[in-house]
Amino acid sequence: MVALIQTLVLAIDIYWWMIIASAIFSWLFAFNVINGRNQFVATIGDFLFRVTEPALRPIRRILPDLGGIDISPIILLLILFFVRQFILTTLAPAII
Questions:
Q1: Which Gene Ontology cellular-component terms appear in the entry (predicted)?
Q2: pTM for this structure?
Q3: Tally of structural domains, the chain
Q4: Is 52 exposed, middle or buried (0-12, 13-18, 19+ CB in 10 A)?
């Protein structure tokens, strides 16, 4: 059971970094720092979009329109942090 909890926490940590990478990639793309026509860059962007968008879309539907500011990644990171801490502080000590 401990291995399952450690694997779940690792998956949350990896997804955490993918959300951060997706946000940074979107900023770099928006400010034309990276070339979106490059196939390698487009592949990375498409991968990050496909991985993070299913979790970000419901949050974006709930949030009010803030103009050009998208805080849905921050909300998702806070949710993931809460879930990770809940697993580590509540579930893990009960099993060990």
A1: membrane
A2: 0.90
A3: 1
A4: buried
Q: Using CB atoms within 10 Å of the CB of residue 84, give its burial: 0 to 12 exposed, 13 to 18 middle, 19+ buried.
A: middle
Q: Is the pLDDT of residue 96 over 90?
A: no
Give tens-digit pLDDT for 68-93.
889 999 999 999 999 999 999 998 78
How many beta carbons lie within 10 A of that of residue 93, not counting itself? 8
Q: Answer whether 9's CB lies under 8 Å from 88's CB.
A: yes
Rg of the chain's alpha carbons, rounded to an integer? 16
In terms of C-beta distances under 8 Å and separation of at least 24 residues, what long-range contacts does 83-86 make, across chains too? 83/12, 84/9, 84/12, 84/13
Q: Compute the distance between CA of residue 10 and CA of residue 76 in angstroms, rounded to an integer.
A: 16
